[in-house]
Amino acid sequence: MTDKEILGNIFDAMAGGTDTVNVKRRLSQEFDEILGNDFTKPITNKELDELEYCKAVIKETYRHTPIAVWIGRILYSAIMKRKDYWTDPEKFDPNRFYKIEESDKYLLEKQHIKNSYTLFDGGIRACPGRKLAIIELKFLLSSIYRKYDIEMVDQNAPLNYFSDVLTVCKDLMAKVKPRKY
């Protein structure tokens, strides 16, 4: 991947919602607890498996702003916003994918998630690289957010993107600075 592609992926992950302060705080807390702050220590597969909230953020980002808008004849982005499938569908909330068995808040998700959410498609047509993609996204997010604090320049500015076959962000202004411990 080029630096430009990596930066694009970071911004894609950030752009899932504008109320990211608590999400970023909780994500940083998970990275600190599981990975520590020794940046020279390699991240292990076991540690990546433990990043459950990070995986929930990845899933919610995709649900909120799917990369592929159409799958076959289905308008996928519409399924991701259906009120009869999702609790508060317009809200960016990774908790809908994080330990939902332990709460009754996300009853719709418990009932419909198998048929209404397919990050890499499902069944016999599921993407063979889906597990690798999740591992790579966890690694990318943890590698960057452990070292840097990233925030949008204007939290209230609308995202400048368009959706056709793929969702593309035209521009996104962000501040990137070293993280303080």
Q: Main attributes?
A:
single chain; 181 residues; alpha+beta; Cytochrome p450; two-stranded antiparallel sheet; 7 helices; globular
3D structure, described in words:
InterPro entries: Cyt_P450, Cyt_P450_E_grp-I, Cyt_P450_sf, Cytochrome_P450_monoxygenase. Keywords: Heme, Iron, Metal-binding. This is Cytochrome P450. Belongs to the cytochrome P450 family. A two-stranded antiparallel sheet has the order 1-2. It has a two-stranded antiparallel ribbon with strand order 3-6. It has about 180 residues and is an alpha+beta fold. It has helices at about 5-15, 20-35, 45-50, 50-65, 75-80, 105-115, 130-145, and strands at about 70, 75, 150, 160-165, 165-170, 175-180. It has a single domain (about 5-180), classed as Cytochrome p450 (Orthogonal Bundle), CATH 1.10.630. It starts with a helix and ends with a strand. The radius of gyration is 16 Å and the shape is globular.
